[in-house]
## 1
Amino acid sequence: MTAFNPDICMYLDTFIYSDKLTLYDVQTGITLKDSATMVLDKTGFRFHDGSVSFQGSVDLGQIQSTPLRASFKRTN
């Protein structure tokens, strides 16, 4: 059996959640670092006059609790 090694990249020009929440240039990348670590990379969006970007990793080996390490960056 071959290993499951997804590499997902997504870009949305405009994401309308409601009349009051619209995100622009939404992008994300999801990969598996190894069989137990999912990495969220190059993720962010524009909102009003600023932008939000973040990255993180999730240890998939922890069934009862999922430790999440993340960093966030905001510009305006």
Note: The chain has no helices and five strands.
## 2
Amino acid sequence: MVSALLGCAASREAGPGIAEPVEQEPAPAASVPEAYRPALEALEEAIREGSNDRARALFRRLELRLEADPAAEQALAAVLAGYDLVLGGRERTAALDLSLQLERISGDREAQVEVWLVARSRWSQELLLLPGALVLSVLRTEMDPRGRSGDRAVLLERDPKTELRVPAGGSARWSLGRLPSGVAGGSLASRLRVDLRARAARIKEAGREYPAEALAARPSRHVELAGYLPSSATPLEELRRAALAPEVGIDSWAERIVRLAPQDYEEASIGLRRLVAERATDLEILDRLAPALRWLLEGEAPGASPSEWRAWARASARTAQEAPRTLDLPGA
């Protein structure tokens, strides 16, 4: 049966240049001409599957058919309006690249970061983002000198209370407030990972509002180091040399891990997983590699025993066979 895709939102004019969303009731099945049912069902299936390009092509083909059939065009107007809004919202959402930035606030007595939402637009017209409620998922991880780490997670809501204006083909950013980022006593480092989801988000263009489904931003991380640690990032090559080096103690190994730049986490974890799968002893896994991987993988832990870590590493390595081998030890 043809529906209006879960009660798609239409819009009505609520004043000059302002569109107010209203719920659009699905058109009664009896009002859909039989000749158009297959086309509408194909369109609905494409939208449901997220095949937006195919859905837009089917929509335009249906519009052309209806131009020669005014009675059917009138009967299907409400259904097509709902589909058009859904597709329009998806197209505009896809043209927005949203990310988070965490910037260290210098000069404060207490270490803090400011959270910024950054939007870059590839759309040809100015867009207004109405994010509704923004939900920040904050994961804080601490590591001590023995490589032991612990996580704390919290959800925070932010309400910008304003439309976020993104210029055509340009970018803009908005502050979502500050978070404490200091290192707890006895820890080597504290890391924040912040994710964002928007609830009931909408996008407005030229006074018309569109639903913004699954609006989210790429996460961001900030690592705060204990004051006595070097501030320079650990090079991947140095991490490679230290991974199983007996002269590098646990505390020195943990320091190298926390100083690794977040953009190097994935490559480093691939090399360490390969060592777990192929070369490391049980003790090396438990004392060195498992704690390092917990930090790099942000809490993921396949188990407690070396055998569980090996099985997990071998399974995950199969999906990374084409990845760079920067962290392979010589002869691996």
Note: Residues 9-94 form one domain.
